[in-house]
Amino acid sequence: MGTTVIKDIKIVEVSPRDGLQNEKEIIPFDKKKSFIEKLMETGVDEIEVGSFVSPKWVPQMQDTDKLFFSILPKDGIKFSALVPNMKGLERVMELPPQHRPKKLAVFTASSDTFNLKNINCTVEESFDRIRPVVEFAKREGFEVRAYISVAFWCPYEGKIPPEKTLYVCEKLIEMGVDEISLGDTIGRASPKDVSDLLSLLLKKIKPNMVALHFHNTYGMALLNSFIAFRDFGITTFDSSAGGLGGCPFAPGAAGNVATEDLVFMFENSGVKTGVNWKKIVEAVSILGIPLRSVISKVLGSR
Fold this sequence. Notes:
By secondary structure, this protein is of the alpha/beta class. The chain is built from 12 helices and 10 strands. The strands form 2 sheets. It has an 8-stranded parallel beta barrel, surrounded by 5 helices. Helix 6 (about 125-140) runs parallel beside helix 7. The longest helix is centred in the middle third of the chain and has 17 residues, at about 125-140. The chain is globular and about 40 Å long.
């Protein structure tokens, strides 16, 4: 019998989707498959395998269906996928039940300008797109996550008032989403910004419904993560192996906070993650992409 690992926080590994979606060079299917299988041995709780978007818009995600068909999750690991619209959801439903992700993710933003550049609609219009996806997914027994981009700062509109992000959260919860991931898409949030938003949000939303998705553009992702956990009881954090990822609609945005850096910081602060950061580095190194984590520089990894 396996030993149950006690964890203080949950790591959602987003590198196969969010980390790779903007890489210009297409990663071969076999290499992606090996990467995800190695991530499954690291101790992470959830892996975002891919995105059911049009290959025309995101060529890197063209083999998401094949990945789900080729890799079955093991006990203790949940597979998730981004589903932008009903067409993407139809592709999910074409997979055999045992090969479908357990969790589906929809997305919007706290900024109309960002949303218009990203998905060609306002925030309010995005709710109309999301609602049928959420309703159908819930009826079919999927868990549903909602990403909110630029929840703190927008590259076009500047600082986002916390009340605006709260409004978006409440609309999504009304639709029936199970979890909301708040994105610091341009990595501009300070500890004060994090405190201001969470102080407001947690008056209306339970901490276990909130995940945080920090980017490390200004080097504040680790500090922001620790404050969210220590001061506000947030226990779910998105991260990307090697710090891979960025956003084409957020000029200057660096990669996601690196999983190995996040794990190293928490574990050395006495916070149990259940994740082996050395195995994270080993997994992402097979992609042959330069890593952006602090740990990788210490190790001299490439």
